[in-house]
Design brief:
The protein is mainly alpha-helical. It has a single domain, classed as Glycosyltransferase, CATH 1.50.10. The chain has twelve helices and seven strands. The strands form three sheets. A three-stranded antiparallel sheet has the order 1-2-3. Strands 4-5 form a two-stranded antiparallel sheet. Strand 6 and strand 7 form a beta hairpin. Helix 3 crosses helix 5 and helix 6 packs antiparallel against helix 7. The longest helix is centred in the N-terminal third of the chain and has 31 residues. The protein is globular.
């Protein structure tokens, strides 16, 4: 028995060291894609696009850590610089973030963002996670203004506790609302002094998500409020929507139903293989659902496939936001292995 545990420990150690190698490499690449003002480019800092939604994902990756690879001061500063840039643009545009492009060495406005609520949610997600990880309590004044503006904008987009896409677009999406919920949740737990209003908003949104989006008759999540549109073979948005609550760690009341949806999604789309490029993205975020389900084997397979295919050449459709999710998944898988050491079983 002793030899079994000794071999188990060796195997887990080897896998954890490999995860730290992947994590370190992805963080290095994300940092290489940070521009002079703090912005994160999607792929290439000399020219290219800055999408604040995906840039937040990249920055979140820099906050991922393991026992032997804690967040460095360089990484903390990089995320702080990004939040400086994002908050500045947020305040300049009165909460209406756009997508930006670098031309002749300058960032210029390219086009309107496709949603306001989801973008605001991701900003608060990153802000909350940064404050928690750095244990920051003395915020710059303009950060306080940025948080306040984001919360006010979210409130203005809410009808009966649920958010619509924008002032002009009254569509209510499951995915956007889960991103808003995550942002409110992270900010609520970030160590700020007065979070009562944030907690109340988050609690109401949490209740409304299950009430309005869960289709009990068909045992699945609705993509859009009051809509039964669903195509079983469509990866996005139909398929991804079914595991989105897992990706954002939303506390579904009946965990069994989410487990069934995850198993159906995995069987139908084989997301871990990364063999299909859907809608121009890798969808590395799907691995977070596996982490929530404790599905070590599929998550391990996905990260291995990612490393083999994208870590060296950094080819399309890889973006820094995808690398951010891989960092977060390395952190999650590392923790899952820590649990396995205690249970004594690898699979």
């Amino acid at each position: 028995m002793f030899i079994y545990y000794q071999n188990l420990r060796k195997e887990i150690d080897a896998r954890q060291k490999w995860l730290e190698t992947v994590l370190t490499g992805e963080k290095k690449w994300i940092l290489e894609n940070q521009g002079p003002e703090g912005e994160f480019y999607m792929n290439g800092s000399k020219a290219g696009d800055v999408n604040p939604y995906f840039a937040c994902m990249a920055a979140l990756g820099l906050l991922a850590e393991t026992k032997n690879c804690p967040i460095t001061e360089t990484e903390k500063k990089a995320v702080g610089r990004y939040l400086d840039w994002h908050t500045g643009i947020l305040l300049e545009t009165d909460g209406k973030m756009g997508i930006y492009r670098k031309k002749s060495g300058k960032l210029i406005y390219k086009e309107k963002a496709d949603s306001e609520d989801g973008y605001l949610g991701m900003y608060l997600f990153l802000m909350g996670k940064y404050l928690e990880k750095t244990e920051s309590t003395d915020l710059p004044e303009y950060w306080k203004k940025g948080i306040s503006l984001a919360l006010k904008k979210i409130q203005s987009l809410m009808q009966d506790g649920i958010t619509q896409v924008s002032e002009e677009n009254t569509t209510v999406y499951l995915m956007d609302n889960l991103e808003v919920w995550k942002g409110l949740y992270e900010l609520e737990h970030a160590g700020l002094k007065d979070v009562q209003a944030i907690r109340e908003m988050r609690n109401k949104l949490q209740a409304q998500i299950e009430k309005l989006f869960w289709d009990d008759a068909n045992q699945r999540w609705r993509i859009i409020e009051n809509s039964d549109l669903y195509h079983q073979k469509e990866f996005y948005p139909d398929g991804v929507a079914q595991i989105y609550p897992l990706i954002y760690e939303f506390p579904v009341k009946e965990k069994k139903k989410q487990k069934i949806l995850y198993e159906q999604f995995t069987e139908r789309f084989q997301w871990q293989k990364l063999t299909k490029k859907r809608n121009g993205f890798l969808w590395a975020m799907t691995g977070m659902a596996a982490a929530q389900m404790g599905d070590i084997n599929n998550l391990l397979e996905m990260i291995r496939n990612y490393e083999a295919e994208y870590c060296e050449n950094r080819k399309y459709p890889l973006y820094t936001g995808e690398a951010g999710w891989i960092c977060m998944e390395c952190e999650k898988l590392y923790s899952l292995y820590e649990r396995k050491i205690k249970t004594g079983f690898l699979v």
